Hints:
By secondary structure, this protein is α/β, with parallel strands linked by helices. Helices cover 29% and strands 23% of the residues. The chain contains 14 helices and 26 strands. The strands form six sheets. Strands 10, 11, 12, 13, 14, 15 and 26 form a seven-stranded mixed beta sheet that branches. A five-stranded parallel beta sheet has the order 2-1-3-4-5, sandwiched between helices. α11 (282-295) links the parallel β11 and β12 (299-301). The longest helix is centred in the C-terminal third of the chain and has 20 residues, at 531-550. The radius of gyration is 25 Å and the shape is globular. The structure holds flavin-adenine dinucleotide (FAD).
Amino acid sequence: MGQAAILTVDDDPSVSRAIARDLRRRYGDRYRIVRASSGAEALEVLRELKLRGGRVAVMLADYRMPQMNGIEFLEEAMDLFPFARRALLTAYADTDAAIQAINVVDVDHYLLKPWDPPEEKLYPVLDSLLDAWQATGDREQPDIRVVGHRWSEPSFQIRDFLARNLVPYRYFGADEPEGRRLLEAAEAGPEAVPLVVTADGRALSRPTVQEVARAAGLSTDPGRDFYDLIIVGGGPAGLGAAVYGGSEGLKTLLIERQAVGGQAGQSSRIENYLGFPDGISGAQLTDRARRQADKFAAETLTTREVVGLRTDGSARTLTFADGGEVSAHAVVLATGVSYRPLLADGVAGLTGSGVFYGSAATEGPACAGTDVYIVGGANSAGQAALFFSRYARRVTLLVRGDSLEASMSYYLIQQLAQVENIEVRTRCEVIGAQGTGHLQAITVCDSKNGTKATVECGYLFVFIGAEPRTDWLGDTVLRDDRGFVRTGPDLLVGGERPRGWDRDRDPFYLESSVPGIFAAGDVRASSVKRVASAVGEGAMAVALVHRYLEGR
Length: 552
Ligand SMILES: Cc1cc2nc3c(=O)[nH]c(=O)nc-3n(C[C@H](O)[C@H](O)[C@H](O)COP(=O)(O)OP(=O)(O)OC[C@H]3O[C@@H](n4cnc5c(N)ncnc54)[C@H](O)[C@@H]3O)c2cc1C
């Protein structure tokens, strides 16, 4: 296979020459540097590359170009090379416009002109884009193929799992020619769907998510029996703790029951995380954090749910749902929160078949031209509305409250107002869902005028608040009446330490009622429910683990 390309597009010949020269100097021995002087010319180059089976690692486009600007170009280029990393080159005066536009396409970085010295301003960005592209291999040739049914919950689970873990795969409907060919090759009938065909040609009929994880090369079993630190939950708090634990030399294990990234991994664009003025998608943030944890040798397991925790002398032992145990000196609980179910008639039976909790980004393209309904009034619902408005004919946000102001950030409300195909309906609730095999209609109650109406609806995305799923902790650690884990000063009632506390010090700030067991992020009582605070608490928990280990 030939060298992968780094493509630059700039209509200004002197800028175009200069950037190609700088790129060639640093990357010319490993990558083909290709330059084009307009979006149309660059698309032509990409089409040729595609036909010749070429690969593109990075596309760097100037923002301000006549006819087709950089954003428009990248949007079209994504259809040809969806996994190439994307960067936008802007003049300082254009940054605001570029940032606004970046919300439309998933751009990894924007670079300011001039980029001198390149060692400081260009190469670090390109290095990180190329590392990211290389870490995931050549995504143009995904090895895993999935044959499924559009409206089947098990098919959705597998696609969602692969997408959230950023594992490249190709999906074929069981009724498409290629889907039928794969089923035939596997000597399997329609009952074998979903069928997963692995890189080495094994056909897995109706596999569990854990079997799919193994087939995708994701680790599901711990490499040792005992660790310095085990983190339960792979959202921002858990990933933060894993990066700090690993980087500070602790033998660290992160256990995640589904896919790393947690709630943040489902966010189409996080705009308030420090250091990303143009926002970052949850998938990108997760990808970077996971690679950072790997770099520091923190082990990560996916598809393993923890269902028990006990103290064995100085050891803290965790039990997996499918049996097996693993122990450590210290544990950080970072299990976050999960969506509350929507308790309306018919909804439970259609979950995964048109009704989805969270964004389910895999469904974006399938929503093309349909009417999408979103339930919820918080930022997560607002982000989802913006995301699906790129595909759907119409997006209706159903909000139970009187207005969005009380529950959604101002910047999101402003953005929603600017998108033509988004409608916000307040004081509205879904009271029923109907459909045979998949969602076809919902019944909406509008309390402003007391009406009930049944409307056609193929997709319903639910974002109605969340709760910690911590029942499995039982009485091991103290929780508040909603199930959030109490820590530090929260545990001192009238100056008294919690019952059973056996140290001559107060619990550390993020320490639970059991020494050596900490909580970080959304699962912690009184925590701020934000990505930045979750990451911060993950890091802080590791500092406190060190103090705990020193004082044992
Ligand atoms: C769609 C959406 C958009 C958002 N946008 C923003 C935003 O723009 N800005 C912002 O600051 N915040 C945003 N938030 C909130 C933010 O994502 C959360 O505050 C943050 O993710 C909390 O991180 P966490 O690690 O504490 O928990 P989570 O992200 O909830 O992660 C917890 C993880 O633990 C795993 N887990 C749970 N139980 C177990 C178990 N027993 N065994 C193993 N694993 C387990 C879960 O599968 C999950 O992956 C958004 C949330 C959503 C849902």
